[in-house]
Amino acid sequence: MYTDPIADYLTRVRNAISAGHRVVEIPSSNVKKEITKILFDQGYVLSYKFEDSTVQGSIKIALKYDRQTKESVIKNIERISKPGLRKYAGASEMPRVLNGLGIAIVSTSNGVMTNKQATRENVGGEVLCHVY
What we know:
Elements: H1 5-19, E1 23-27, H2 30-41, E2 45-51, E3 58-63, E4 77-79, E5 88-89, E6 103-108, E7 111-114, H3 115-121, E8 125-131
Antiparallel strand pairs: 1-3, 2-3, 4-8, 5-8, 6-7, 6-8
């Protein structure tokens, strides 16, 4: 059993990218599903599929690579708020990742969303991770 399922999710994606895998399979949860949808909407993953065949279910993510250089679209994906030290940001002090080129995924009272969307909706929350 692991204590931080979101860190496990990010580590599985990071390891699959470094190994050059096309697809990664991750145990499912509602927060992980929302993070996957955000990564797809922002163009960081090629496609995803939620499978509920087992008790917990799983998420299959097809990773996106550049055609010429064969490098992953995701250069870095890192956990910010950890179970031992939560990081929160208000609507006015939302973090900018790579001067606006990357995204921060934030868990707010209105659901999981990007830092840009949270700023538009004027809500703050827990900063889960940075992706660029």
